[in-house]
Design goal:
Elements lengths: L3 H9 L6 H11 L2 H14 L10 H13 L3 E4 L7 H4 L7 E6 L8 E5 L6 H16 L3 E4 L5 H9 L4 E5 L12 H10 L1 E4 L12 H11 L2 E4 L7 H11 L3 E4 L7 H11 L3 E2 L3 H12 L20 H10 L5 E2 H8 L3 H13 L3 E4 L3 E4 L1
Parallel strand pairs: 3-4, 3-7, 4-5, 5-6, 7-8, 8-9
Antiparallel strand pairs: 1-2, 2-6, 10-12, 11-12
Helix pairs in contact: 1-3, 1-4, 2-3, 3-15, 6-7, 9-10
Length: about 350
């Protein structure tokens, strides 16, 4: 019998198959092996050729490399996948993890900020992390210079999660190599990229969504207006999580992003008590645990007229899927199926906010 983990990884590493498509395929066909077998027919209906599925040998080598590093894969349809992260529509279909995955089920707060953070901000972040840890709260951050480093240092003893934009065997920045190893051995280290992948710029926003998705709320301690930290805050807000910010001097450019967030409605934070007061009602809620019983597009067979109608509404400008349903007058199941076919044919691109456009 073939390893289902190999089949899942083959599907996930196949071009044009993103997290949303993976979940839809598993929901529709029940297993990765069945989904792989169905790809040619689905792509043909979308007017293109099926993407070339990654060879089993390639997936097997990745799994072996991960095991050799003392890590393992966790799939979005595994029962131990972090439940809050699994609530995201675009939650990573597979991640590589080292350490204690169970701490992701505790109260988690994301703490992010500037790489060139001031000494005062780093000290404040470290103190916040220590105080949150005493209250049983886990701190997640991105293992970058500056604020991230301070957040991890303050929470190492009580629970910390590091999310990196590279493969799990790559330390970036290099000076945080020892800290990254400490996070992996004392807490939890997460990477979405396969082993050996360098930290490319395009992968940092993907990392940021994981940081925001793991947490009930995100605290920005110090950040410029157009920083990656504000991207994380935006992603947290889009996911329905709390956004908090530490105010700073209007004369310091590194504080402008935080002050802007507060002006736009973020909770002002001056102490760990402010964070705890904000998250406790949310932290007590029940969250969905992802499982193999995904809810996705049921097996429907759109007609050629349905396909033409939906394709005619698409263009190079991203449009919300809800708008496609509204304007086409078709059911959500039919629209979802046609979009799936178009994506597998390489004709569709997915964007943030449940929007799509022609590729």
């Amino acid at each position: 019998m073939s390893d289902p983990g190999v089949a899942r990884l083959r599907l996930i590493r196949t071009p044009t198959i993103g997290p949303i498509t993976y979940r839809q395929l598993i929901a529709r066909f029940g297993s990765a092996a069945e989904a792989i077998a169905a790809l040619p027919d689905l792509a043909a209906r979308g007017g293109g050729r099926a993407p070339r599925v990654v060879d089993a040998a390639v997936a097997e080598r990745e799994i072996a490399a991960v095991h050799k590093l003392g890590a393992r894969h966790v799939f979005v349809d595994d029962p131990d996948y972090p439940p809050l992260l699994g609530e995201l529509d675009n939650a990573p279909a597979a991640m590589t993890v080292r350490g204690d995955l169970t701490i992701a089920r505790r109260s988690v707060i994301a703490m992010v900020g500037a790489r060139n953070a001031s000494a005062a901000a780093c000290r404040f972040a470290r103190g916040l992390a220590v105080e949150l840890g005493r209250e049983g709260v886990v701190v997640v951050s991105g293992l970058a210079r500056g604020l991230d480093t301070a957040a991890h240092q303050g929470s190492l003893a009580t629970g910390t999660i590091g999310v990196i934009a590279s493969g799990i065997d790559i330390a970036f920045p290099p000076e945080n190599k020892d800290l990254q190893e400490q996070v992996a051995t004392q807490g939890l280290l997460i990477a979405e990229q396969p082993p050996g992948m360098e930290p490319l710029a395009r992968n940092f926003p993907h990392r940021n969504r994981i940081i925001a998705g793991l947490a009930v709320g995100t605290v920005v301690v110090e950040a410029a207006p157009k920083s990656g930290s504000l991207i994380t805050a935006r992603l947290a807000n889009e996911a329905g999580r709390d956004v908090m910010a530490v105010p700073g001097s209007p004369l310091d450019p590194r504080a402008q992003g935080c002050n802007l967030l507060i002006r736009e409605g973020a909770t002002l934070v001056q102490s760990a008590a402010d964070i705890l007061e904000t998250i406790r009602p949310i932290d007590a809620r029940m969250v969905r645990s992802p499982s193999s019983d995904f809810t996705g597009a049921p097996a429907v067979d759109p007609g050629d007229g349905d396909r033409r109608a939906i394709a005619g509404l698409l263009g190079p400008v991203p449009v919300a899927i809800d708008e496609l349903i509204r304007q086409s007058g078709l059911s959500s199941a039919i629209v979802a199926t046609v979009l799936l076919e178009l994506e597998l044919a390489g004709r569709l691109e997915r964007h943030a906010g449940a929007r799509v456009s022609l590729g």
